[in-house]
Write a structure and sequence with these properties.
Elements: H1 3-8, E1 14-16, H2 25-34, E2 37-41, H3 48-68, E3 77-82, H4 90-100, E4 104-108, H5 113-121, E5 125-130, H6 133-142, E6 146-150, E7 156-157, H7 163-170, E8 177-181, H8 187-196, E9 200-203, H9 205-208, H10 217-225, E10 231-234, E11 242-245, H11 246-251, H12 273-279, H13 298-334
Parallel strand pairs: 1-2, 1-9, 2-3, 3-4, 4-5, 5-6, 6-8, 8-9
Antiparallel strand pairs: 7-11, 10-11
Helix pairs in contact: 2-3, 2-13, 3-4, 4-5, 8-13
């Protein structure tokens, strides 16, 4: 698959972002069927036997979809690998990736280099999840086909740069596939990101509240009830800056105004089954949480995103036409 092939298959240039303890096979398949990239992080499936079952479910679900709708309406799917040195399960994850061959693989919390040989071996694309320009340059040097630029306002592990500043700076040295994520939760924001130079948008928070997500019903309702003012960013819980829902922290006896000042050691070992239990009731969201108005099926969310995205394009064209007309009038006066 080439980036051109990928973009041609999408109803709207969006990736349902891989979200810890939220993205699973049902959400991935529903997203691909609706015409956006469906993604999930492999650490969601523990132990390794569960990951293989999930990969089987995704590939079987997409095979069924191809029997029910045209092939060119089904978007590619994506696996998200943690390549941090603390992830002792990475070799096993890569073995299964090589077997089930997701067209896209996004690496996170480490260099993309460990995944490149395997994924390029079957013709897939490797993208690197990055939060700074320094990491973006390192990922490009390592051979990544694309970058997932995580910006300020993103849910879960977040960045510090504005989406517009990040994309603009990256485009000075990289012409490959660029995904941008950070507080973009509607089609208007997607259009703005594409106009700024991105190819795709990572959208996570909007899909936490999808019917097909693994999120608890109370989590989904908390998103419906929350706004951007209910988000706090801290590295005090996981060791990496992340965006948390204040009501969730309070419900777990954590004061969002008194989060630990010293980050704990970072550990992202996918073989640690007990670790998932610790985070099931502490919930994250991005600053775009205000766009979540109800719990909806993925197909309905994508329809709304597409309508907004097309409306934004039409608005831009009208503004552009008026601007061009004004310039023509000024030129005729000077003549």
């Amino acid at each position: 698959m080439t980036p051109r092939d990928l973009l041609a298959r999408l109803q709207v240039p969006v990736v349902a972002a891989p979200m810890f303890l939220v993205s699973g096979p049902e959400l991935v398949v529903a997203a691909c069927r609706a015409g956006i990239v469906g993604a999930f992080p492999t650490p969601n499936a523990r132990p390794i036997e569960v990951l293989e079952r999930w990969l089987e479910d995704i590939t079987a679900g997409l095979d069924r979809a191809r029997d029910e709708q045209p092939e060119n309406t089904i978007a590619p799917w994506c696996a998200n690998l943690v390549t941090h040195s603390s992830n002792m399960r990475l070799p096993e994850d890569l073995r299964l990736v090589g077997r089930y061959q997701p067209p896209l693989v996004v690496t996170a919390l480490g260099s993309p280099r460990p995944a490149i040989e395997t994924v390029h071996g079957y013709g897939g694309l490797v993208l690197a999840d990055v939060t700074t320009l320094a990491l973006a340059r390192k990922a490009v040097e390592a051979g990544a086909d694309g970058l997932a630029c995580i910006c300020h306002g993103a849910g879960g592990h977040t960045g510090a740069l504005s989406p517009f500043a990040f994309v603009s700076a990256v485009r000075e040295f990289f012409d490959g596939l660029v995904i941008v994520g950070g507080a973009i939760s509607d089609g208007w924001g997607v259009a703005g990101a594409i106009a700024a130079g991105a190819d795709l948008v990572y959208m996570g928070t909007r899909f936490i509240a999808a019917r097909e997500s693994l999120a608890d019903a109370a989590y989904k309702q908390m998103l419906v009830d929350s706004s951007a003012s209910d988000i706090v960013v801290s590295a005090g819980l996981t060791g990496t800056p992340a965006s948390w829902l204040k009501p969730s922290l309070r419900a777990n006896g954590i004061d969002p105004e008194q989060l630990p000042a010293t980050p704990p050691p970072r550990s992202y070992d996918s073989s640690d089954v007990e670790k998932t239990k610790r985070w099931r009731d502490i919930w994250a969201a991005g600053q775009g949480v205000g766009a979540v108005k109800s719990v909806q099926p993925v197909a309905q969310i994508v329809r709304e995103l597409r309508e907004e995205y097309l409306a934004a394009g039409e608005r831009f064209q009208r503004r552009l036409a008026r601007g061009t007309a004004a310039i023509d009038m000024q030129e005729s006066v000077h003549e």
